[in-house]
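To the structural biology subgroup,

Please find below the input and predicted structure for DUF3592 domain-containing protein, which we are adding to the shared reference set this quarter. The sequence is reproduced verbatim from the submission form. If anyone notices a discrepancy with their own records, reply to this email rather than editing the shared folder directly, so we keep one authoritative version.
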Amino acid sequence: MEVMYLESNPNEAKINGFFSLWGLALILAFLGMVFSSIGFGMLLFDILKNRKGNYLVENGLKVEAKFSSVELNYSLQVNGRNPYRIVAEWLDPESNTIYMYKSKNLWFDPTDYIRNEYISVYVDKAKPKKHYLDISFLPTVVE
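Predicted structure (tokenized):
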């Protein structure tokens, strides 16, 4: 085993081995890649979700779903708060099936801003479960 040190500072000696020289840098680089991948994954998920909504607005079937309720999304919590979602239902007259549609997560209570009984929902013609609930009528929140 070879030991490397400076003659002027022998207290900071290192063993001349790959892990002893590069181990800390490799561990930090690995952790950086893991956390960067998580961040980029979240960004990519958001971009793809917005693309799906835009696709359904352009190519989907527009239906008028009846406003049902505003609910808290208990499956997500950020800083001790749960987001709200608008729930609307639509009866498909062809299949006599009721579909329940939910909006994206909202970080304010939209109840006071829902003035119409029906809300526009864009659905995939082949798979009516795939949907985009149009919430463009809601005000923009600025913090």
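Summary notes: Strands lie at 3-6, 9-15, 61-72, 84-92, 97-102, 118-123, 131-133. The chain has a mean pLDDT of 93.

Regards,
Lab coordination
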